[in-house]
Amino acid sequence: MKLFIVAALFVAAAMAAPATPDGAAQIVTQNTDNIGTGPYQYEIETSNGIVIREQGQLKNAGTDNEALEVQGQYSYPGDDGIVYTVTYIANELGFQPQGAHIPQAQ
């Protein structure tokens, strides 16, 4: 009988535990086009309002100037209620973000 009570308590505790931690976002939408070679692209949207879109391709394949060039955008809701959006290019020149809230070099 004691074993049954202990087992029932474990089952009750497991059922009462949340499936995800408080505040954990869930993926709402996910689209991917990537076969492992050549260009790729993906889009992810989460339940907390984060949206990510990216595409990339290899430039100058097989040369000394070979480089991956990635273009994308992500947005997220700030604590102040504003949705912040960053558009970027990443290539042989580095990560180049742009956004209304990001200071730009003059």
UniProtKB/TrEMBL annotation:
One of its GO terms (cellular component) is chitin-based extracellular matrix. Residues 1-16 form the signal peptide. Keywords: Cuticle, Signal. This is Cuticular protein CPR4A. It comes from Papilio xuthus (Asian swallowtail butterfly). GO terms for molecular function: structural constituent of chitin-based larval cuticle. InterPro entries: CHIT_BIND_RR_consensus, Cuticle_Struct_Prot, Insect_cuticle. It holds the Pfam family Chitin_bind_4. The keyword Repeat does not apply.
